[in-house]
Amino acid sequence: MKYKRSLALFSLALLAGTSAALADPAYIGAAKCKMCHKVQFTSWESLTHAKAFERLKPEEQSKAECLECHATGSSAELPGVQCEACHGAGSDYKSLKVMKERDASLAAGLLIPDQKTCEGCHVGAPHEQPAFDFESARAGGIHEFKNPR
């Protein structure tokens, strides 16, 4: 009887650990990124990406098709195009230990945005917007960087 109970408890613990490991990464919000990335955060917060949610009319602020590009993770709780809108949900790569190593960060889910990332919102949006030129946008910068690229 004791053996079966131990086996059942072990199985439950194993399942819980497995399902946690398989869970999608969660968004943590720009305020958490700011703790280590002050230069990037400060420059980002003055840009239009940070204010993307504010550009929506009140009736648009709950529409899924608007939140897809004007809020991070398609959630009004993360207004604007925050860090994770481009770099991926940060729960798995947020730790200093992981972030210190580029390869570890990438393995843990950090995304390096590319043209396709940007075009996801800037091309084919459900509303009128200026023509998007990736190279011009990239040359103009999205946020400052502490270290040269």
Task: Explain the overall architecture.
The protein contains 9 helices and no strands. It has helices spanning 2-22, 30-34, 38-44, 64-70, 83-87, 96-99, 102-107, 115-122, 134-140. The chain has a single domain (25-140), classed as Flavocytochrome C3, Chain A, domain 2, CATH 1.10.1130.10. With 149 residues, the chain is mainly α. The radius of gyration is 19 Å and the shape is globular.
Short description:
By secondary structure, this protein is mostly helical.
Number of strands: 0
- Percentage beta strand: under 5%
Shape: globular
Largest sheet: none
Relevant CATH superfamily: Flavocytochrome C3, Chain A
For the record, give the distance between the C-alpha atoms at the N and C termini, rounded to a whole number. Answer: 62 Å
What's the average pLDDT?
86
Short descriptors:
0% strand; mainly alpha; 47% helix; 9 helices; 149 residues; globular; Flavocytochrome C3, Chain A, domain 2
Topology:
Elements: H1 2-22, H2 30-34, H3 38-44, H4 64-70, H5 83-87, H6 96-99, H7 102-107, H8 115-122, H9 134-140
